[in-house]
Structure formats: structure tokens, C-alpha cells
Amino acid sequence: MKHPVYALITLTLALMIWLPTTSQAQDMGLSTAQAYEMSQNDETPVLFIDVRDPIEIMFIGFTDAVDANIPYLMVDRSQWDSEKNRFRMYQNPDFIADIKTALAKRGMDNTATIITMCRSGSERGEPSARFLRENGFENARYVIHGFQGSAAKDGKQKGLRIINGWQNSGLPWQAKPNPDKIYRMDSR
């Protein structure tokens, strides 16, 4: 049996590692309503980026409230991830450069507020905002529940993403992407 002091030290160290990450995520996180309101405010402009792979957008939906689609992670359809039972994803090597280009098009710089949104907020939304902050974009934020939201835990609709998120908040969205805003390889 471990000595109680060792258990306390282990717990303290774990909290020291976990708390900064958690508080930073809370500091960066926005509700869908907050993100929408900020994206519509002309007095304090933001750069609102959908960071999902364009193929995902094609099947799930899109909102024209975003300024552009710049994927943070992209699908590699030649590699299968058997642990996650899906195609492997890799970080978009042009993500930072594309963000800089989008900022410049709007007359903004790296001090501007950048809001990222993925499907659920966890796998790409929060990590992309953190990555932007690590690369000098100090005001990067993300939409907590993302575009599609969380899945129901029980009931007839168990597993369906109907709990929260952009689509479930009554905010504007459409089934098809806007070709002027979607990330396209032919326009690179």
C-alpha cells in the first residue's frame, strides 16, 4: 500500500498538469450563441473559421456565419486507423499560413479574435484554438459544442447528435457548403 503522502503528492501533480489545461480551455471556449453574436458584430470583427474537413461538411452541413473553412485536421483516405475505426487524420500543414491569409484578406493581424468550430468542439475545435495560441494568435477561441453538438446518451435517439451545438441551437445553417467559403484544393 502506498503511503498517503505519496498519494497526495501524485494528486497534487496531476492537478497541476490538468488545471492549467482546463482553465485555458474554459478561457478559450464560447457557446454557439456567443460565437454567432461575435461573428455578426461589425464593430469588433472576428475571423470565424470552420476547421472541419470539407468532406465532413458536405455530409453534415455548413453555416455561412463562418468566414471560411480551413481544416485543422484532414482525412487521409489511404490510411485506416483501426483503433478509431475510421480513416487516419493528419494536421493540415498549411493551417497557419491559411489562417494568416484569411486574416490579411479581412485587414486583420495575429492580434484579432479567431474563433474555430469543428463538429463537437473537442477533437479539432479546442485543439486548433490551442495550436493557434501556441503559434502567436493570442486571441484564438473555439465553439464548445461545435457545429453538430453532443450525442444523446439514451432514449430512442441514443447516439444521435441532438443535444447542443450550432445545428441544435436554432442558428442559421444549410445542408450544402458555400463554394466561396469551402476549402478547395483547386483554388490553392
Automatic annotation (TrEMBL):
A GO term, aspect molecular function: transferase activity
Name used for this protein in its record: Sulfurtransferase
InterPro entries, sorted: Rhodanese-like_dom, Rhodanese-like_dom_sf
UniProt organism field: Thalassospira alkalitolerans
Residues annotated as signal peptide: 1-25
Keyword tags: Signal, Transferase
Gene3D superfamilies according to UniProt: Rhodanese-like domain (3.40.250.10)
Domain Rhodanese: 42-158
UniProt superkingdom: Bacteria
Pfam families reported in the protein's UniProt record: Rhodanese (PF00581)
